[in-house]
Amino acid sequence: MRPGPPTKSTVEEVQFLAEVASQQRNAARWVIALALGLRQGEVLGLKWTDVDFDLGVLVVHRGWPQPRYQHRCDAPCGRKPGYCPQKVTIRRETKDTKSRAGRRPIGVPDELMKLLAQHCDEQNRERSLARDLWVDKGYAFTSATGEPLNPNIDHHKWNELLETAGLGDG
Question: Which residues contact 167 (CB under 8 A, 6 or more apart)?
């Protein structure tokens, strides 16, 4: 039986959250963000070309903005654009960071680089299973078919992770 969450907001709490995250798909997404202090958009915008396994460095230079949608229905569907069954995205997939300070190389500890390498192997297995359904855009954290992760769904996954860990809501 796994111990319950710590009672204080501490390093132990973050470690416990990382332990709970390790049981989920894209576990490295959460551990990397927690350990390196990356924002949601920075993690979701991370591509494999941004990771140098030999040097133990990843480079942040793009973010993943919240999606913005527009209706494409012939008759008004009565829904917000994001819920329209025929919606189209009107915002670019990624964009450069807001400032030069946001574009930065980050040294990654060996244990995290090993975790990223394991995640890369898992993604390659998913790619093999998905075959023709795989959409390869080079992102490090994707759906089971290679699609980039939606920030809204990712946020809900974060809240589910916190709830599973018994650490309140995000």
Answer: 5, 13, 16, 17
Give Cβ neighbours of residue 22 (< 8 Å, ≥ 6 apart): 31
Separation of CA 123 from chain center: 13
Amino acid at the residue 131? R
Strand-strand pairing, 51-52 and 57-60: antiparallel
How far is the C-alpha of 43 from the C-alpha of 69, rounded, in Å? 22
pTM here is 0.74
10-residue averages of pLDDT along the chain (170 residues): 58 87 92 91 93 96 67 76 71 56 84 96 96 94 91 90 80
Helix (H) or strand (E) holding 60: strand 57-60
